[in-house]
Amino acid sequence: QKHLLGIEPLHPTEITAILDLADRYVELNRQANKHADALTGLTQINMFFENSTRTQASFELAGKRLGADVMNMAMQASSLKKGETLIDTALTLNAMHPDLLVVRHPHSGAVDLLAQKVNCAVLNAGDGRHEHPTQALLDALTIRRAKGRLHRLNIAICGDIAHSRVARSNIILLGKMENRVRLVGPPTLMPTGIADFGVEVYDDMREGLRDVDVVMMLRLQKERMDGGFIPSEREYFHRFGLDAEKLSFAKDDAIVMHPGPMNRGVEIDGTIADDINRSVIQEQVEMGVAVRMAAMDLLARNLRAAREADQGVMA
Ligand code: CP
């Protein structure tokens, strides 16, 4: 692949290759010297048009640990504020010869559009409700390490599915790897036509969590609700918030995941989030750095190979 724009175009063998390499980067990241040279000589620009803590920090760390020159564009202070279009901003940056562009944007499809205009590898760090591929990959790595496999697991994704790019990328990835995915949440927060994705849909947490191996909780994404119905947080927690009683319906060794940012007392009880016997939320953050290192390493190899092939044609 030239870019990482979504999980949709990835073959299961490509997903496995990213996770295998990420496993090696987990070991590197646990050492005193965390440096490797996979991106030495390359320039990585991070463009975040939406807020981020985990994704932006881990892409920055990943690039620096692999030896790239990393620049974080301050999008709030950029000429976008003066009316410059996304494409003109991209073309301007492209003229500075970056090798990797990491882009988060509030509009679905914006990152794909940008990728068509530049000469470097583009990584989607989350676009609208569309995809968040590195989140799904880090979730997959977390599951594989906790469960010893990434197939034939029962996985419940719970909460605001309709507005979630994390849910969409996870549904695609987990389906490709032959898991059974259940979606659990209020019907008002389920996308229409979701059954076409080969998932089971529940509006009752106890039924939806029965005997699952993995419970993945999602935040209410109010910023994408466009003035539509927003449930009361108290009522939502009562019906769909993960607490010990609802979790007791899952398998005894079920893991609890959350991509962050978390709203304690809304979609998840704080004691469950902090329970080191069940929650792998901090492991997800750790896996995020390793997965982003692996994704950028593999794209950089493809980029270098394509450039060498181009030079061969020119010679
Ligand atoms: N999970 C996730 O994308 O978190 P951030 O918004 O903090 O990057």
Largest sheet: 5 strands, parallel
User: How many helix segments?
Assistant: 11
Total strands: the figure is 9
Sequence of secondary-structure elements? HEHEHEHEHEHEEHEHHEHH
Average pLDDT number = 95
Strand order of the largest sheet: 7-6-5-8-9
Helix content: 40-55%
Strand content: 5-15%
Task: Explain the overall architecture.
The protein is of the alpha/beta class and 315 residues long. The strands form two sheets. A five-stranded parallel beta sheet has the order 7-6-5-8-9. It has eleven helices and nine strands. α2 (54-65) packs across α11 (281-314) and α5 (133-147) crosses α6. β3 (100-105), α4 and β4 (121-127) form a beta-alpha-beta unit. Keywords: Transferase. Its EC number is 2.1.3.2. This is Aspartate carbamoyltransferase catalytic subunit.
Primary descriptors:
315 residues, alpha/beta, 5-stranded parallel beta sheet, 4-stranded parallel beta sheet, 9 strands, globular, binds phosphoric acid mono(formamide)ester, transferase
SSE inventory with pairings:
Blueprint: H1 12-29, E1 43-48, H2 54-65, E2 69-73, H3 86-94, E3 100-105, H4 110-115, E4 121-127, H5 133-147, E5 154-158, H6 165-176, E6 180-184, E7 200-202, H7 205-209, E8 214-217, H8 233-240, H9 244-247, E9 255-257, H10 270-273, H11 281-314
Parallel strand pairs: 1-2, 1-3, 3-4, 5-6, 5-8, 6-7, 8-9
Organism: Lutimaribacter degradans
Keywords: Transferase
EC number: 2.1.3.2
